[in-house]
Amino acid sequence: MKKLRLSRILLYVVLAVAMLMTAGCGGTEKAADPGIADGTYVATFKSDSTMFHVSEANQDRGILTVKDGKMTIHVSLQSKKIVNLYPGPAEDAQKEGAELLEPTIDKVIYSDGYEDEVYGYDIPVPALDEEFDVALIGTHGNWYDHKVIVSDPVEGDDIQAVINGDAAEGSAAVPDIADGEHTIEVTLEGGTGKASVDSPAVIRKSGDEIIAVITWSSPYYDYMIVDGQKYEPVNTDGNSVFEIPVASLDSPLEVIADTTAMSEPHEIEYTLLFDSSSIK
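Below the sequence we write its predicted structure tokens.
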């Protein structure tokens, strides 16, 4: 009897420990930060195969939707010959219970006006600019492994506007960086060439907004003008420091800075350029 009771006690202990471990591991995971704000974007979708690609009408572009930290891209393929997709390797796609991606019927319009109906798919995207697995099955019933990559998101939902270069002003690719504080290399052009700004500079990203902290090499700048808006220094001692909005990176930002270093105040035109490849 004592041995039986001891066995039962040990069993209960093992079960309790297992339940605690399960509770500790589940239910607390959060969606990974995609580094891009919730919204709709036109993004580039490419695969490792000429047999698996976006319709030529859309030139490797699809509609990327970002919501609550999760990303999905809808792509219209070149035909109806790919009957299912699976977000993972082909081996897993053939396992019992695997959830396959079902096609939609999409209409595409080519540059010559020809219209066609093709299959489209909503594909989960784990991360931008990183290859991930997508398996496909064709009309012959065979599964194939492929690698795909999603990159270059541009805010909006009009693929043809992006292809034609008619995307709305200010809808340049959103930097693939998480919300928070970062540093970035910045160059200054204009004026006499004597002034400079600290580089790297601090930028703060929150959703679609980017604020740059600009520190001049002089204490005599008393205001800046960006897109018609006047900004005062955020400090009272030392070289002049401003916090200004940046509409997009890798594009020249025209600003005006007023200096009191001369006999009379002078507004001077400058150009700032922020290098997104240097973000840390």
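The two ends are 66 Å apart (CA to CA).
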